[in-house]
Design a protein that fits this description.
The complex is a heterodimer of chains A (about 190) and B (about 290). Chain A contains 5 helices and 3 strands; from the N terminus they run H-H-H-E-H-H-E-E. Chain A is an alpha+beta fold. Chain B is globular and about 60 Å long. The chains are: A alpha+beta (about 190), B mainly alpha (about 290).
Amino acid sequence: MILVAPVAAAWAIALIGWVTRVRRGPRSEGDGLPSKRQRGVVMALVAVGAIAAAFLAPVSSVLWVVLALNLVLGVGENVPFSPYSMFSMPSTTAWALCFEDGEGASVPISKLGLAPHDMRKRFAAELRAARARGVRDVDAARHDAASVLATLVEERRPPHGPFSTRTISIVLVEYSLDEGKVRQVRTPILETSP
Amino acid sequence: MTGIEVPSWTSTELDIMRVGLGFVAIKTFSVIRTFRPSGELVHPVGLARFVDLKWAASRAATRTIQQGAYVAALCLAAGLLTSVALVFLTAAIIVEVTFRSSYGAVNHGNHLLAIVLTAQTAAMVVWNAAARWDWDLGVALAGSQASTAAWWAAQAIVAVYFTSGLSKLINTGGQWIARAPMLLLSAYERGDTGGMMDSWGQAQAASGVRRAAWLLDRPLLTYCAFAGGLLVELAAPIGLLGKLALAAMGLAIIALHKGNRMLLGLSFPEYQLLVLIYLVNVPQFVR
């Protein structure tokens, strides 16, 4: 019961949410999404429920304690706890960062020791930091964030070989869904050279 | 009363789990030098908010962590100094993941190993304390230290997948399945980032983009694929009802990872290995 009831409740919420959303039809990207505060309250309630379950069923107490810690300590990404929220808020838009040479060809930055997805996450973190500093202009915030990545690229640029002298452009590519088809918008942010 | 019992693992099964965990630790620590950041920890998380982990960027520190982890993993696999090995590996993985995640790019690739090692270390400490001071912790502990460690590890793994499923419901107000096809845009994003990888990465990304385009034309199939994945995550606790339920849930989770690899280009190989070791527990079928 202590295992089946939460699973059944979660399944019911997932399936009812699916059916009601499909019936109502999509309106806008933010339509129906809970606020940060609402999400926090629900997480806290689930964590309290998990702690109660740990006392009710000590044999599975580790499951409930880890769940509670993931929802409380994990929110601040306090390793080893995490709410594992990647892909939890699907959006109608997506974006990528491309590193290109002067002729528009992709630069394999992984060969410079820079993981493309880490660079993308770093860009997002620097964007948030720029906004926190009060930079309201989108282009200025993007430029500031890309400058940090450009510094990383220059630090790792090899002294010899094809990438030692080439100009490298950082390009933001945004994707959106338009009647089931993917649209792309490319915005060059800055260029870096040795 | 709850219908849940700690599975009765044989000593061979427990030995193989221990060896498997040692293997996953070696596999994880063998690649920690790749893409290592340096300089100030610009966006500290967890432990790094309180302790300066800059020292972990140095080549000497990296080599020490790595070689220490190899020795500890071998000791764990061999059943020598298990307690010391577990404590070292737990500390090393927490420091390593915290350090790498403190540069603005939180990386979840090793979180499952970190939580499994933490659960095993906690099980070892609690078991020893209970034995020393005659604590009666009832059914929270299994019949032996090794069984308790394996049971706590299995519960921690189940908790991770259940948390992931609940986060999707909480963050979308229960509408995750209806919104999930939008995740196919991530395949396009990965197509472009794949262009910055080696030729294998480029080929993988290109096939991911083709599959995403194919699925975008078939919305019902897309809904069903993502719904299946979420329902598997949310059903994870059912695995704790017994060894066979645990194995069935483990296989479903591995299938989920295979699907994620196909649709989104995400594989999480260490996650799959740990699920195979603690949930599927292959030796139980080889008698």
